[in-house]
Specification:
This protein is mainly alpha-helical. It contains two helices and no strands.
């Protein structure tokens, strides 16, 4: 597992780049590459969700 920190602007730029790459692979009929990029987009989205909800979950559990 690799842990990195990004600003909100960097995350948005990463998402845009991955979206553009996925669309490019789709246009050029590279389904395997398209699926790899789609998987990366999902992992980024999951990481963002986890990073935003984890501190709230810990705070909730500690306050009980």
């Amino acid at each position: 597992m690799i842990s990195v920190s990004f600003t909100d602007m960097e995350i948005n730029q990463l998402r845009q780049a991955l979206r553009a790459l996925e669309e490019s692979h789709k246009r050029n009929c590279f389904p395997v590459l398209e699926m790899l990029v789609l998987d990366m987009r999902r992992k980024v989205a999951d990481a963002v969700i986890d990073a935003k909800t984890l501190p709230e979950m810990v705070e909730f559990l500690v306050s009980k």
